[in-house]
Amino acid sequence: MTGALSHLRVLDLSRVLAGPWAGQILGDLGAEVIKIERPKSGDDTRSWGPPYLQGADGNADLSAYFLTANRNKQSLAVDIAHPEGQELIRKLVAESDVILENFKVGGLKRYGLDYESLKRINPKLIYCSITGFGQDGPYANRPGYDFLIQAMGGLMSITGQPDGEPGAGPMKVGVALTDIMTGLYATIGVLAALSHRDRTGEGQYVEAALLDVQVACLANQAMNYLTTGQAPGRMGNAHPNIVPYQDFPTADGNMVLTVGNDEQFARLCDVLGHPEWASDERFATNRARVANRKELIPRLRQATVMRSTQEWVQVLERSGVPCGPVNTLDQVFEDPQVLARGMKQSVQHPLLGDVPTVGNPIRLKLTPVSYRTAPPLLGEQSKQVLERVAGLSPGEIASLRERGVIS
């Protein structure tokens, strides 16, 4: 084991995306991550397909969704509703540093696997709970899902075409972004708690809630409201505070312009053949362009349709104007910059063969991330984990398997 966190063991009792995302990050950074799953069914996302990646002989498969967030993990399938299953978890807790879980509020208390119970076994334990709405408040007992939270947390109210335009209406983001951001915040919380433990020897309880995270990540849009009292609406691909900062049509498709200051705008005007726009008082400053976007944007659109996307990108890049194509995913994973940065990776699995995976964007010079193991089959490492970490004999493990406590 190598990596910045190679001295840590994590029990990942979470499923779907937010918790597993945090567990995968910790695993990429070197931690030993043991994924605790239900026997027979496992993580919900194992069945969220098609598509599935199948082994050459067709005897094993994993859903693409499960592959998203479960590399660098070992799978232990154990029934935590069974008293012997609960005891197995306690044995593992005694030898672990971190727990990740995303059960409903109070869901693990009935099994004696809540923080108050487990910290008596391991006072240094970092226990991270992820829920939809948090451990308290009027919504605490509600289940939370990314799509629901994107709606309730305001993201959908500012995403999509504005009223009166074709396709108008609130729109979710194309990936479960709130889950992913919650996984990131959970990871940060765990690392902060570990830093505190390094200084004091104290473990602690860490909490992350999807709704909290979504509200926090409204960023400038939240402050636009809080400073004016006016709720921002949907603007399609336009930016509420910067102009021009959106998509524009070209002769063969679309491109994106992200003009961040007045100097870049002046260079854009030169390239478009309209240098006079840069000195027009309606457009000379970003403040003026935001106020007069309805006059400026149609002019820009009339100019950008005169060349292809590739032609515009080449000439604008030479002039220092930030721009780019709207890539499809096949184009993304063929992009030379994406490939050069190692964002397309693969790991080997004994039954599935070559398993594709998306690279981790964290760059550490001395302790780089690693791609050690493919996402596991259900219960793939049950025997090894129970022998090595819990200290069970082969006979004890066989007995547990016969009685359905593990698989």
Distance N to C terminus: 26 Å
Number of domains: 2
- Note the main sheet: 6 strands, parallel
Structural class category: alpha/beta
Which CATH-level-2 architecture of the largest domain? 3-Layer(aba) Sandwich
- SSE series: EHEEEHEHEHEHHEHHEEHHHHEHHEEHH
Briefly note the CATH topology name of the largest domain.
Answer: Rossmann fold
CATH superfamily assignment of the largest domain? Crotonobetainyl-coa:carnitine coa-transferase, domain 1
Count of strand segments: 13
Work out the helicity level.
Answer: 25-40%
Highest-level CATH class of the largest domain: Alpha Beta
Count of alpha and pi helical runs: 16
Q: Please tell me how large the radius of gyration is.
A: 25 Å
List segments where confidence is low: pLDDT < 50 over at least 5 consecutive residues: none
Mean pLDDT over all positions:
96
Query: What fraction of residues sit in β-strands?
Result: 15-25%
Based on Cα principal axes, name the global outline: elongated
